Amino acid sequence: MTDPIRLSKRLIELVGCSRREAELFIEGGWVSVDGEVIDEPQFKVTDEKVELDPEAKATAPEPVTILLHAPAGVDAETAMASISAETLSEEHRFGKRPLKGHFLRLSASADLQARASGLLVFTQDWKILRKLTADAAKIEQEYVVEVEGDMVAHGLNRLNHGLTHKGKELPAVKASWQNENRLRFAIKNPQPGVISLFCEAVGLKVIAIRRIRIGGVSIGKVPVGQWRYLSGKEKF
């Protein structure tokens, strides 16, 4: 048995590439060790079979954006720590292959309402981060809110045209019933706690809040605690 060496060094020996090219091949998920993709250049190998995909490109991986269905009451830092290859939604395990590099240098944006669950966005793409922060006031968010109680007369009309509650002026919001105990709210850049205030103002008590959409991107059929990649066709 030979002494263990870095995977990047073994690849250089095999294909005659430069050190930087070897690192890019490996980080891009183009290199396998005994049939298993390894994306860490420092991974140690001995006599294993190392192969480079014939389609390999020595380019830095494209930045990714991850859409997490966060549980209620979890802050962004805790939510980010839960993102791994194992928590990728089963229904979305096709197309893009999870790499360890996808879980590094992620930035969170668009915080959830207090105690809410639902869509959280983590991205490596500075263009998307800028869009979600600089244009936050222009991007509509959609929430489904489970409530109990009896809505006051003309409550929906009041929500949709703006109202004052406890001396605080609340903005107009697009509100509609999803079913007998769930309301849908569509609002741009909701301030912390404002959805609970909306409900309280029309005689309702909030049981649960879930964000399902930011701009043109919805969380879709992703179970709580799991995530999927943003596709190239989706736009915030």
From TrEMBL:
Gene Ontology biological process terms from the UniProt entry: pseudouridine synthesis; RNA processing
Classification via InterPro entries: PsdUridine_synth_cat_dom_sf, RsuA_PseudoU_synthase, S4_RNA-bd, S4_RNA-bd_sf
Its EC number(s): 5.4.99.21
Enzyme type, top EC level: isomerase
SMART domains named among the record's database cross-references: S4
Enzymatic reactions: uridine(2604) in 23S rRNA = pseudouridine(2604) in 23S rRNA; uridine(35) in tRNA(Tyr) = pseudouridine(35) in tRNA(Tyr)
All residue ranges annotated as the RNA-binding S4 domain in the record: 5-65
Record keywords, A-Z: Isomerase, RNA-binding
GO MF, one annotated term: RNA binding
One Pfam family here: S4
Gene3D superfamilies for the chain: Pseudouridine synthase, RNA-binding S4 domain
PANTHER family in UniProt: PSEUDOURIDINE SYNTHASE FAMILY PROTEIN-RELATED, RNA-BINDING S4 DOMAIN-CONTAINING PROTEIN
Name of the protein in question: Dual-specificity RNA pseudouridine synthase RluF
